[in-house]
Amino acid sequence: MQPKTIIFFGPSGAGKGTQADVLKAHIETSYPQTPMLSFDGGEEIRSFIKEHPGAIAQRAAGIINEGNLLPSFIPIWLLSSFLIANYTGKEFLMLDGVRLLPEFKMLEEALEFFGAPQMHAIILDVPEDICRDRLRNRGRKDDLDDEYVSKRLTWYSTEVLPSIEYLREKDGYYVHDINGDQSVEDVQRDIRAALNID
Predict the structure, then answer these.
(1) Torsion angle, CA of 137/47/19/126, rounded to 10 degrees?
(2) Helix (H, G, I), strand (E, B), or coil: what is residue 82?
(3) Helix axes 101-114, 161-168, angle to 10 degrees
(4) What is the distance between the alpha carbons of residues 42 and 48, in angstroms, rounded to a whole number?
(5) Which pLDDT score, from 0 to 100, does residue 94 have?
(6) Nearest partner of 128 among 92, 52, 181, judged by Cα
(7) Contact indicator for 29, 197 with CB cutoff of 8 Å
(8) Distance of CA 16 to the CA centre of its chain
(9) For the stretch 66-79, what's the b/e string if a residue is b when 16 or more beta carbons lie within 10 angstroms of its beta carbon?
């Protein structure tokens, strides 16, 4: 199996993290000869805040707690550092939480530099009301704040969807629209079929 670069998209509550974890476990089990790397932008930002106490962490945490996006230079730095430290271009690379157009333009340059394999974008399409129900059921404090959730869903539409359209127009980029309003197993089946992963 040739390695692939796989990026997950979807609004908050779409199940990106769950599907990424299931797919990662399947690839690691089925293709143990090919190394796997995964980058979760949300987790990396939380770790960044925890590991950099002081003014920068306070400012970043305040922006996130208000349901807003960090300026692109922070996620770009985190992703660039991850790739430089770990990536050779020969691994399965799975990305979640890479969202804004400046981040994608940097990623595009990085993948070209590493001679990386084909890029696939997985778009989990889930109605907004279903996303809200899933977030409430998840039970995290932020997910119970309707205003916070509304901000996250709005900036997916206004900030992330333009990045997806950018990828649709690029040669050599494969964009797969997946019905995310199904069982975890059925969504995973559709993702593997789109990626041609047995």
Answers:
(1) 50
(2) helix
(3) 40
(4) 10
(5) 93
(6) 181
(7) no
(8) 7
(9) ebebbeeebbbebb
Looking at the DSSP bridge assignments, the partners of residue 70 are none
pLDDT score recorded for residue 123: 95
pTM recorded for the entire structure: 0.89
Question: Bridge-partner residues for 94, per DSSP?
Answer: 6, 38
For residue 25, count CB atoms less than 10 angstroms from its CB and return exposed for 0-12, middle for 13-18, buried for 19 or more: exposed
When computed from its CA atoms, the radius of gyration of the chain, rounded to whole angstroms, is 17
Structure tokens at 131: 């996303």
CA distance 87 to 85: 6
Beta strands, E only, the chain: 5-9, 36-40, 92-96, 119-125, 173-179
Total residue length of the chain: 198
Two structure tokens written together for 160: 């992330």
Mean pLDDT of the 132-160 span: 83
